[in-house]
Specification:
extended, transmembrane helix, EGF, seven-stranded mixed β-sheet, alpha/beta, single chain, 13 strands, about 20% strand
Length: about 230
């Protein structure tokens, strides 16, 4: 038996799949809050920070309450005293402001874990673990009571935010996490190493693609309608 969906049924199915995908994405993003059991520790600075920021505690995370467009935004993450030996990734935490990884037997932390963590401004690490990007990536680094404190993420570009010696000509340098920067093409430049001058040909590139998509969608709709009538 062959089942043929109407246009409205197909649209409804797509909507349901999108809702399910978004919910699963949010759950995946918040999995980092369950890397350790329990809730934010009383000995962690994340708790007081969350209270002063009017945040909301969810397991080991502090979530922002002042952003209705992104209610699950993680601003604080407490992974202290979790028996972690390494940190490979922190999914969904790229907008975090504070991370506590102290009291862990950490042997290795990949610096790429914090790629894109532009808002990360305060880290608490075991004293033997170096700050991501090294001391040059932070305004203040100190060891106190068996913990290493990394405070105030530095912009790895020059102070003016204009041309960088590390970026190709006709490009601008921008921060991209502790010890990282990214190069973006200056105005009216695009392409490989920003060598091509002029605006990106949006109409020439996406126009035929959009037209072909519309035509194919229409043909599929007509075909499905004919099959539905024949039944």
């Amino acid at each position: 038996m062959k089942v043929v969906l109407s246009w409205s049924e197909t649209a409804a199915l797509i909507f349901i799949l999108n809702v399910c995908f978004n919910e699963s994405y949010q759950l995946t993003g918040l999995q980092v809050c369950s890397l350790c059991g329990g809730t934010v520790q009383n000995t962690s600075d994340v708790g007081p920070f969350c209270s002063s920021s009017a945040g909301r505690i969810d397991r080991r995370c502090c979530l922002a309450n002042n952003n209705t467009s992104d209610p699950e935004r993680i601003i604080g993450l407490d992974l202290s005293n979790c028996s972690l030996t390494q940190v490979k990734e922190l999914p969904g935490a790229s907008k975090v402001f504070m991370i506590d990884l102290s009291l862990n037997p950490i042997v290795n932390i990949s610096e790429k874990v914090f790629l894109g963590f532009l808002g990360l401004n305060y880290m608490i690490l075991p004293q033997d673990v170096l700050c991501p990007g090294g001391n040059v990536s932070w305004q203040k680094v100190e060891v106190k009571q068996g913990k290493r404190l990394c405070e105030g993420q530095n912009n790895m570009c020059n102070q003016t935010g204009q041309m960088s010696m590390s970026c190709p000509e006709h490009s601008l340098c921008g921060p991209y996490g502790p010890g990282f920067f990214e190069c973006s093409c200056a105005e009216n430049y695009q392409g490989y190493k920003c060598l091509r001058q002029g605006e990106f040909p949006v109409v020439e590139v996406f126009g035929p693609l959009a037209a072909s998509t519309v035509v194919i969608s229409f043909l599929v709709w007509v075909t499905q309608r004919r099959k539905a009538k024949s039944l």
